[in-house]
Design brief:
This protein is of the alpha+beta class and 245 residues long. The protein has 5 helices and 12 strands. 34% of the residues are buried. Bound molecules: biotin. It comes from Mucilaginibacter sabulilitoris.
């Protein structure tokens, strides 16, 4: 991952750019990375926009071709990618670093980065996965609309070289991806769970306009979040549940 690296100054979204490249040109090598200094239409999960100050942060997309992965196991890709980002950042940030289900990167209660995975499915298997990663690195402040965003610089009061962190992330994603490819999905699932934000803690959530107190107990193989509420386990998709702070 990252051997074939293309950097662009400005683009709508690296995910969109990579998707267009795939449909217009000859096949690209697996592990190709498209990195942009700035995106003017960065996209997040659930139709959100992704804002990032030009030149300050990491915004990039990785091409994976996990033909070995059945669609029902697609969530293992989310696990592998979030673990790769986690492992790259852990030496900088230590134990306050967490993965917020399904694949946000959190430091304490603040969002350091996010992941947007878009797949192209062919006969029940994943032909292409475009792995979009946005990480706040050297940005010094965020406007109120950015919610609970935080950057590495705001935590550690230093500037970081984007290329260095990019290559660390690529190496760690590759390691977890290869372990998935080798069939070690149980290990991937177990480590992912152990890194989870709010795991086994009594917290407030909202679902269907109802606030309730619950405890995250698990993530199903296919990616649903399992929350215990009054000794009963309920499963949620991303659209169905909101974490309340
Ligand atoms: C989220 O937290 O909702 C996911 C954010 C993903 C942002 C990255 S930045 C690089 C890539 N290109 C995009 O347009 N989005 C992803």
């Amino acid at each position: 991952v990252g051997q074939n690296l293309v950097t662009i100054k400005e683009v709508d979204s690296t995910n969109t750019f990579l998707k267009n490249l795939l449909s217009n040109s000859k096949p690209l090598p697996e592990g190709t990375v498209i990195m942009a200094e700035s995106q003017y239409a960065g996209r997040g999960q659930q139709q959100n926009k992704w804002h990032s100050e030009p030149g300050k942060n990491l915004t990039f997309s990785i091409l994976l071709t996990p033909g070995f992965l059945p669609v029902i196991n697609q969530f293992d890709l989310n696990r592998v990618v979030s673990l790769g980002v986690f492992d790259a950042l852990e030496p900088y940030l230590g134990s306050k670093l967490k993965i917020k289900w399904p694949n946000d990167i959190y430091y304490d209660d603040r969002k350091l980065g996010g992941i947007l995975i878009e797949t192209h499915i062919l006969s029940g298997h994943i032909k292409h996965a475009i792995i979009g990663i946005g990480l706040n690195i050297n940005q010094e402040s965020f406007d109120a609309g950015a919610g609970n965003a935080i950057s590495l610089k705001q935590i550690l009061h230093k500037d970081y070289d984007l290329r260095t962190i990019l290559s660390e992330i690529c190496a760690h994603i590759e390691a977890h991806y290869l372990s998935l490819k080798a069939g070690r999905f149980l290990a991937v699932r177990e480590v992912y769970l152990s890194r989870l934000y709010w795991l086994n803690q009594q917290k407030y959530f909202r679902s269907n306009d109802q606030v309730f107190e619950g405890i995250i107990r698990n993530v199903k193989d296919e990616g649903l979040l399992v929350v215990e509420n009054n000794n009963e386990q309920q499963e949620f998709s991303l659209k169905q549940i909101e974490f309340l702070n």
